Amino acid sequence: MTEAGFPLSRADAFQRLQSFLPTAGRAYARLRNKDQGKGRHVHVSRLSPAVRRRLITEAEIIETVLAHHDLASAEKFVSEVFWRSYWKGWLEQRPTLWPDYRAALEREKDRLDASADLRLRHEAAIDACTGIDCFDAWVEELNVTGYLHNWARMQFASIWIFTLGLPWELGAAFLFDRLIDADPASNTLSWRWVAGLHTVGKVYLADAGRIRSMTNGRFSPTGLAHTAIIPTDSLQTPQPAAVRPFARPNPSAPTLLLLTSEDLSPETSQEMCGLPVRAIACIDGCNTWDRMAMADGMERACKAWPEADCLGIVEPAHLLAKAHAAGCSQVTTAFLPVGPVADVLMPLQVEGPTRGVLFTEYMHDWDRRTWPHCRKGFFALREKIPALVRCGRD
Ligand SMILES: Cc1cc2nc3c(=O)[nH]c(=O)nc-3n(C[C@H](O)[C@H](O)[C@H](O)COP(=O)(O)OP(=O)(O)OC[C@H]3O[C@@H](n4cnc5c(N)ncnc54)[C@H](O)[C@@H]3O)c2cc1C
């Protein structure tokens, strides 16, 4: 658990889920949008740092919740968990959006250097000096805890784009660098959604009265934009494409199991369980939170495969050589979704065969089942929720 109380081990995630269970039904539907302020987010689960790293999976969360509530009572909570899968599946089928966003971000950073006006407005935002009470307080909460309530994130992004007139790409990067649950799909695509780029023409405009009411009068912002100018010169939405091809692990090949912050419960995967794992390694995390979660994942994996050599952190450039030295003919990791970890590791897919070590990935049934319904709007996935939850966990 972090100092601010966010679960970063599998045991803490299950404990948090257990204590949240009574709230996951109708109370969640009624109260989830209330932002109570730093340290008081009792109406939401605060599970995102754990599920983002798959210390606990979406399937496990939903199965546990539905053992206590029927789907009608827990519909809101369950569908929020599906939003995570939706964003992930949607991006996976439009992978070019990630490098396009990264390139646009670099262009916006260059614009900061070139335009004093833009730079000053950006500095005021990131230094919590805009004079907009809720916005400045959310920057401070984010800096201290690494977390913002979902509803606050929506207001924050809307004020950033429409009131402060700042590029959404800079806002998405600002949040991504600070969030304890930073996730390429949920973050980038939520910013696009607020900006009006996901559902064409539909923007999210923050409203002062609603902010007052949802924060129990803690904030009374003035000067918020009343109209939204959609950033039309921004990234075009590509058509959906097939999920990228990947090599599945050979069930009898000596294996180096690789843990990354994308999935830290390999021992729960059916596909992994049968593999002859000879060595276990992880790549270094991006921040202290990743490292805490990684330590927990490594400890469990090394217990689950006691015969394997626990190598600890390995530089990506040395992975294939380490696997070879450990007598392994394949490196196996969980499917790497679009994002920084895949950016670093994907070159090994090409390099592996030339070095006599295949780079292979196992995929959760959850992703295999949900992603085909993530090609259009969320509604198409929401319709399938009853059938998907009946299929059970993977
Ligand atoms: C601008 C913006 C940026 C965001 N960036 C991220 C991010 O980088 N990483 C991230 O994990 N989430 C992100 N979200 C989604 C959401 O805000 C968080 O997942 C949620 O606040 C986590 O808190 P919780 O676990 O208490 O949620 P709860 O309300 O308890 O929801 C339960 C679970 O459902 C999922 N979930 C809930 N709401 C959403 C949502 N809107 N989108 C996707 N999944 C959701 C999460 O896995 C969450 O743990 C972002 C939302 C916005 C509007």
UniProtKB/TrEMBL annotation:
Keywords: FAD, Flavoprotein, Lyase. FAD binds at Y28, F77, D181, A182, D183. InterPro entries: Crypto/Photolyase_FAD-like_sf, Cryptochr/Photolyase_FAD-bd, Cryptochrome/DNA_photolyase_1. GO terms for molecular function: deoxyribodipyrimidine photo-lyase activity; DNA binding; FAD binding. Pfam families: FAD_binding_7 (PF03441). Residues 77-200 form the Cryptochrome/DNA photolyase FAD-binding domain. GO terms for biological process: response to light stimulus. The keyword Lyase applies. Binds 1 FAD per subunit. Its cofactor is FAD. This is Deoxyribodipyrimidine photolyase.
